[in-house]
Automatic annotation (TrEMBL):
Its cofactor is Fe(2+). PANTHER family: ALKYLATED DNA REPAIR PROTEIN ALKB-RELATED, NUCLEIC ACID DIOXYGENASE ALKBH1. It comes from the Eukaryota. Fe cation binds at H204, D206, H260. It comes from Brachionus calyciflorus. The keyword RNA-binding does not apply. This is Fe2OG dioxygenase domain-containing protein. Binds 1 Fe(2+) ion per subunit. One of its GO terms (cellular component) is cytoplasm. Pfam families: 2OG-FeII_Oxy_2.
Length: 317
């Protein structure tokens, strides 16, 4: 799914990738003046999309860590129909919870990680790192798969290798899918990507799922990423979006098979804003993470990025 080594003549995607890979800071990015910041969307580039609460109620949103319905906005990239962005729809406290789950729990067996390819894990990776105050091993974690585990060698989902996706992730993705009109969405597989500041993800299409009608939902957490979104050919120049903590990208319809890539991860000078929480309001929620507990997760996430993406693999019956 990740590597696309096809040599393409006039590869404008690669050209953009190389430009953004060189960027060193937020200031450099702003100076380049090409990357779209989601807090300031140009109506010439994006259409506002009407969300749909039909099959949901406000309580569903609240338990999934989402803000009230009228505070969630969704936009479609005009040049790329089906490519939707939802700028951070989460309660800030919920981002803490998702980050904690990705760092502390979701990589535990039977879920699979890149580390399993060459070592046998002994205990929980995060707990071990904290205990020894040594993140060397943890920092080798690059991906975890959930649901139908992806077979990276044969580029297929293994029907016989399945563990239920975490309940919170499944529920959250069902709610997001319903908001954009996919009431019967089945969250069947997912990848959690762990990026360092020098990590990149090369241009690729996600075409291993049998079901290409269901959207792919992708959530950014922690440090920011330049995300390139193209079309189904690398000869067209991609659009670059700055994805910050909490932002959701949805690849649906014609954009489901679009080439995409991450050429740059940047430490976000405003990262603290995404995790502030009103402790009194959050304490009653099952997803509350206290300031004290948050501290270690924060130290990781301010210089790393997590991407949590969810897919429906099979066709509806
Ligand atoms: O990190 C991202 O935003 C994109 C991840 C991705 O494209 C993938 O896992 O296939």
């Amino acid at each position: 799914m990740y590597e696309d080594t096809k040599i393409v003549e006039n590869d404008l995607f690669m050209k953009e990738f190389k430009i953004y890979k060189q960027i060193k800071s937020f200031d450099d990015l702003k100076k380049l003046n090409q990357c779209v910041f989601l807090d300031n969307l140009d109506p010439n580039l994006f259409n506002a999309i009407e969300l749909n609460l039909n099959s949901l109620n406000e309580e569903d949103l609240k338990t999934s860590g989402l803000r009230p319905f009228n505070e969630i906005k969704c936009y479609e990239l005009k040049s790329n129909p089906g490519l939707l962005v939802i700028p951070n729809p989460f309660e800030n406290g919920y981002q803490r919870f998702l980050i904690k789950k990705c760092l502390y729990e979701y990589h535990d067996p039977p879920n699979k990680t890149n580390l399993d390819l060459h070592m046998k894990r002994d205990g929980n990776l995060w707990t071990n790192a904290l205990k020894c105050q040594n993140f060397g091993e943890f920092n080798k974690l690059r991906w975890t798969t959930i649901g139908y585990h992806y077979d990276w060698t044969n580029k297929v989902y293994n029907e016989l290798d399945y563990t239920d996706p975490p309940v919170d992730v499944a529920e959250l993705s069902r709610v997001i899918a319903a908001l954009i009109g996919y009431k019967n969405y089945k969250p069947e597989a997912g990848i959690i990507n762990y990026y360092h500041l020098n990590s990149t993800l090369s241009a690729h299409q996600d075409h291993s799922e049998k079901n290409m009608n269901a959207p792919l939902i992708s959530i950014s957490l922690g440090s920011s990423a330049v995300f390139l979104i193209g079309t189904t050919t690398k000869t067209e120049k991609p659009v670059s979006l700055l994805l910050r903590s909490g932002d959701v990208v949805i690849m649906s319809e014609k954009a489901r098979l679009a080439y995409h890539a991450v050429p740059k991860i940047l430490a976000d000078p405003e990262i603290d804003n995404f995790f502030q929480q009103n402790n009194e309001m959050c304490q009653s929620r099952k997803w509350y993470v206290s300031d004290q507990e948050w501290n270690n997760f924060y130290n990781y996430i301010k210089i790393n990025r997590i991407n949590l993406n969810i897919r429906q693999v099979n066709n509806n019956d």
